[in-house]
Every structure is written in structure tokens, then in C-alpha cells.
Amino acid sequence: MKIRLNGETVETSIPDILSLVKVRDLDLPSLVVEHNHTIIQQTAWADTLLQEGDTIELLSFVGGG
Amino acid sequence: MEDRLALGDRYFSSRLLTGTGKFASNSLIGPMLAASGSQIITVALRRVDPKAPPQDNILSHIPDTVTLLPNTSGARTAKEAVRIAHIAREAGCGDFIKIEVITDMQYLLPDNHETLKATEILAKEGFIVLPYVMPDITISRRLYDAGAAAVMPLGSPIGSNLGLEMKPMIQRIIETSKLPVIVDAGIGRPSQAAEAMEMGADAVLVNTAIATARDTAIAGRAFAMAVTAGRMAYHAGMAGHSNRARASSPLTGFLRE
Q1: I need a labelling partner for B180 at 20 to 30 A (CA). Which of A25, A58, B143, B218 fits?
Q2: Chain B within 8 Å of A59 (Cβ-Cβ)?
């Protein structure tokens, strides 16, 4: 299926958000995940299944003034 | 009576707001906060780059006692700023939000029009909204009507260290604003922070000047002392200046006939 990940269209067979972030070497505690414009709490990542056309944003807090 | 800064329903004894941008290492942020006593610090939200090496969690360097002030940097419209604010709140950053909407990429000057629109929306939703604006009395009044918790006029362009280029306009905002006035951006030296506080600003926000100093903790302390000194001078009611000398010692002429 195709999803929009951080603004790019990617082809993936990954079933859920937890698996999606785990295959990337990311600092999970600081990660903010937006699924179709809704924030998904970390405890719900495993239960949030990906579907064709979903929009995922992987965000994190960084230094800023 | 304690001289505290009131923002929304919260009170702060420190009038120095700080930022987390441009530190050589996130590990410098904690010691800077301890040395400066700053109780409010800004953070930004960015897309994760999966190709870049993982960064450590900046929030883990900020003690729970310090209030997070997420900014909406990167937003070019009110709508984008509102979206960032929602994400920050849902991600557990609390109700404070610094509205920063920038469409001028040359000088990074804020877009007052979009900033006002975002403020109206977010204040209604219960955010404690701190809008970063071009110094303007009319926008300051409209932000009050919109429910902002403060107005944050810039001293000079972000990161420029030019100090209070906008001093006369900031002075007029201080004279007329019903909101706390926090001078944000461009403050490059403690003396400039003191100058803003002497004028009657309620607080200053300093990021670049502290974060890029050789010793960021000492710089934080220096800014904190300057802010305190400037505030005290404001309360003391300093006299105006004169182009002519006014003797401070008696000129009694007993040495001459």
C-alpha cells in the first residue's frame, strides 16, 4: 500500500505504527506521531493499523527560540 | 510584595525567558537553566529525518519545574500555527504557546496579520498565547482583545544580536499595552536586556546570545542579573537625562574669595 510519510509517498507493507517507527532507528520516547492529523499516544501505536492513503507525520521536539 | 510576572493564570519570579535553539549540546541546557533561574523555555517541533542520526530527547534536559513554551516556528499561516499548537499540547507540552508566523524569509520578521488570527483561535481554546510580533500599538491592542496572555515585540531580527533597534516603538507599546510586554529576539547582550527592563518591559526572551556564548551557564546568569537590575531600576524610577552638567557635589566657593 501507499502512505504519505513526512510528506513523501512511500510503498510499505508495514501493518501498524509501532512497527513503522521501530524499523527506523528513532529515539522513541521523544517521538510524536500524527496519523491522519490525529496524535496517536505511544500506548496506542501497536493498535493503530496502517491503511492505503494514510498520512503519517513523525515529529519530535528540537531546540528553538 | 513579590514582583512576579503573570502570564495567564500562572506566576513566575524570573523575568528571563530562554530558548533551546543553537546550543552546541543539549546537555548545556540544564546547567544554563540552573544558573539563570529561567522558569520558561522555548522548544520547537520538527519532522524527524529518518536518515539523520537519532537526536537525544531535548525535553529530557528540561526540569519539570520549568514551563515549556513550544513555538510555532516553521508556520507561514495561522492555520499552520494552530496545527503546531494542537500537536504540542497533545504531545504533553502544556498550554503555553509562542505564536511565531513568518513569511519574510530574508529578515525572519513576523507576520502580524496571521499571528493575530492564530491568537484569536488558540486563546478561545484555552491556550496561554504569547504572540511574537512586529512592534505595533494597534496589533498590541488587538492581541489583548483576542485574549493573548502577553505581547512579544521583537527588539531586532532573530539571532542578529542587534539589541533594541525597535526601542521607540517598544516604548510606546509598554506605555499603552494592557498586556505584559516581553521583548523577544535580537537581544544580544545583558546590557540590552537591562535596557529593555529599565524601559518597563515585563520580561525578555533570550536564546541566541546565551546559546552561542562560550560559557552558556555564565551567560545565562549574566542575563538574569541584568534583567533583575533593569527591573529594579524601573521600580526605582530613574531620573531623566540632561545635556548639561548638574553638580552632584556642592560648589561652595570657600577656596576662592
Answers
A1: B218
A2: yes
